[in-house]
Amino acid sequence: MGQTVFAGKKIVIGVCGSIAAFKVAGWVSELAKEEAMVSVVMTASATEFVTPLTFAALSGNNVHTGMFGTGKEDVMTHISIGRDADVILIAPATANVIARLANGMADDLLTTTILATRAQVLVCPAMNSRMYAHPATRRNLQTLKDLGYGIIDPESGMMACKEEGDGRLAEWDTVKEHLAKSITPQALQGHKVLVTAGPTREPLDPARFLSNRSSGKMGYALARSAFRRGAEVILVSGPTALPCPPGVTRVNVQTAEEMYEAVLTHAGACSVIVKAAAVADYRPEELHEHKVKKENIDVNLLLAKNPDILLELGKRKKTGQLLIGFAAESRNLAEEGLKKLRKKNLDLIAVNDIGGDNTGFEGESNQVLLVSSSGTEILPHTSKLHTADLLWERITSLLMQSPQKA
């Protein structure tokens, strides 16, 4: 639901000779499903691990393996592939290929294509941990960084050679985000943004707490989308089962008071704050150190009011700083949104209709009503990630009208 960032993009994947090449076959399949136009270039060594036919079947395109093709259209392949690419991804990138690139060599189709392109080149190293740690490899990777290549650091773990350490090919979720970032306009470059997400838990005792149905999916989508646009992202998250989006700094909290402290610690340095968390309004007045037996629980639970984080942010908002709120409502969406916009000194508020079948908590899709001082706008019913993309488009427009960065 909602067009993906990869739809229609021309992505060249250079596959080198490593056992990790089999993982990249899955990446090609994923990109093809998201309607990317994938071209695969394989080194001679790579064909010893995975056949070109595999990549051809998964991408739906011919695979390029040699400098000199058999047809007339293959004569200038190394120029045409690199010229038309939106991004080139080298995965797995062996120590040998990294060394050749660092020295500007062009002795096969892949290295020649890379020297001829003006597209962003992303490198995913994958090799034995000792090879990765070798000073020559470290020097070569630094050279590539200095030349403008993007390096997606490998992970640590058990290798095919049964050694453990740094050098494992990065996971697809990480690579996917760096790919998405490379083809997304960097409208938030130079901006530091703060996003809150998830519920809070207000403990009664070690076993029980008050909370709500928030999954955190909308906030995490907002953080992911902001990273793709070039922002430095801090995600203050209540308890969720979601993995932290790659490239995002997550601060974990449990209670509303913990979220209050974390948000105020980071808010001053941020030019945009998006408050998407569902923070509990109240907490149990008394916190019991030990579990209370059910026969001793008072049926009349006394509550204490939690701090209003968004209200406090509105009071402290600096010139040029944008403050975006979220509201969960089941009726009178526009009226309730406008009240909160004015009361809390917001620039924009996204109102969720939690009474809808596919627009409330926990779902994969969303539809929000945007309320600002200039009017309202209903966004289409779409995925939460696409909703996040649309929100950042609106926020970016507001940033351009802002008198100065925070």
Number of domains: 2
What CATH architecture of the largest domain do you see? Answer: 3-Layer(aba) Sandwich
Helix content: 25-40%
Q: Give the distance, in angstroms, between the N- and C-terminal Cα atoms.
A: 35 Å
Largest sheet strand order: 12-11-8-13-16-17-19-20
CATH fold naming of the largest domain: Rossmann fold
Task: Supply the helix-strand structural class.
Answer: alpha/beta
Task: Describe the global form.
Answer: elongated
Low-pLDDT segments, ≥5 res: none
Helix and strand topology:
Blueprint: E1 10-15, H1 21-33, E2 37-42, H2 52-59, H3 77-84, E3 87-93, H4 95-102, H5 109-116, E4 120-125, H6 129-133, H7 135-146, E5 150-151, E6 155-158, E7 164-168, H8 172-182, E8 192-197, E9 202-203, E10 209-210, H9 217-228, E11 232-237, E12 249-252, H10 256-267, E13 272-275, E14 282-284, E15 303-305, H11 309-316, E16 322-329, H12 333-343, E17 348-353, E18 365-366, E19 368-372, E20 375-378, E21 382-383, H13 384-401
Parallel strand pairs: 1-2, 1-3, 3-4, 4-5, 8-11, 8-13, 11-12, 13-16, 16-17
Antiparallel strand pairs: 6-7, 9-10, 14-15, 17-19, 18-21, 19-20
Helix pairs in contact: 1-2, 3-5, 4-7, 9-13
